[in-house]
Design goal:
It contains ten helices and eight strands. The chain is an alpha/beta fold and 314 residues long.
Length: 314
């Protein structure tokens, strides 16, 4: 299974910054050499690719270093050239994963899931929205390659980060070709939420059983709404931050519960022969090793699904 990475671009964050930048390198090192994974360095997304989901004026401000102090505060990172390069490569990793998933069934970005970035601004440690850019690009490439085929590529975003995917919801709010599903903490960030096609809000302290029941119900609704025209590609944001040990999550989902969550998502997509582009999304464990272990387990579930897909098993 192909896994794309960009962790060589490390942001120079100030002392005490709470973003766990080392988790990306630790995750790559964890799977490097493991049977079944093909590590791929990510290419940077071009300005034209970014413009499929973002305003040119915003892209220019990021690339040229003219973001206002207020916009930098909303993103949560100070502007540096490395911030720009990392952000472009993170989008490029999801583009690579999406192309690979369409060809092989499942692929992963070892970072990504930057779902708080809207068309004209970033937020919540997200500069550009990788799933939004990749979704629009895959639709464009699908159209160019299959002009004789009726209909275009329908996409679903299954966002299971503990925080609502407000940027993704805003970008696609009037786009019937992209279905946005977000299962998140009701009282958690962002405090002003956007309307996804399907939002499922969870109470603080939610445990495994009600979480998985809510997921099952949401997936049933997703498939029911697409009974006649199923999505041809799923972007799965597998946040580690619903975990009970997460500093920012406020839910009480066990590591086993998160593994079962991943298994159910991959199984549901595989049974319908829908390719999955995975991104790791958030994770702020009190112990960074917990976050890495959860994300490693997600990748193991993705690999198992990739193997079944390519063996022709459902």
């Amino acid at each position: 299974m192909q896994a794309f990475y960009s962790d060589q671009f490390v942001l120079p964050l100030p002392p005490g910054h709470r973003f766990p930048m080392p988790k990306y390198r630790l995750l790559r090192e964890r799977i490097d050499g493991e049977p079944g994974f093909r590590l791929r360095p990510a290419e940077p997304a071009s300005e034209g690719e970014l413009a499929l989901a973002h305003e040119p004026s915003y892209i220019g401000a990021v690339l040229q270093g003219t973001l206002s102090e207020a916009m930098q505060r909303e993103i949560g990172f100070p502007w540096t050239e490395r911030m720009v390069e990392r952000s472009r490569r993170s989008v490029g990793a999801t583009i690579g994963a999406a192309r690979a998933a369409l060809a092989e069934g499942v692929a992963a970005n070892l970072a990504g899931g930057t779902h708080h970035a809207s068309a004209d601004k970033g937020g919540g440690y997200c500069v550009f929205n990788d799933a939004a850019v990749a979704a629009r690009l895959m639709q464009a490439e699908w159209h160019r390659q299959r002009r004789s085929v009726a209909g275009g590529l329908r996409v679903a975003v299954i966002d299971l980060d503990v925080h609502q995917g407000n940027g993704t919801a805003a970008i696609f709010f009037d786009d019937p070709t992209v279905f946005t599903l977000s299962l998140h903490g009701a009282k958690n960030f962002p405090f002003r939420k956007e309307a996804s096609d399907l939002d499922v809000e969870l109470p603080d302290g939610c445990t495994d059983a009600p979480y998985l029941a809510a997921l099952d119900s949401a997936l049933e609704q997703l498939w029911a709404r697409h009974a006649g025209s199923p999505p041809g590609l799923v972007f799965y944001l597998a946040g580690a931050d619903p975990h009970e040990g997460d500093r920012l999550g406020r839910l009480k989902i066990s590591a086993a519960g998160l593994a079962e969550r991943d298994r159910r998502v991959f199984a549901a997509c595989r049974e319908r022969r829908i390719p999955v582009a995975l991104s790791m999304a958030g994770g702020y464990g009190r112990d960074i090793a917990d976050t890495v272990a959860i994300q490693h387990r997600t990748l193991q579930e993705a690999l198992a699904s990739w193997r079944q897909w390519n063996n022709g098993a459902s």
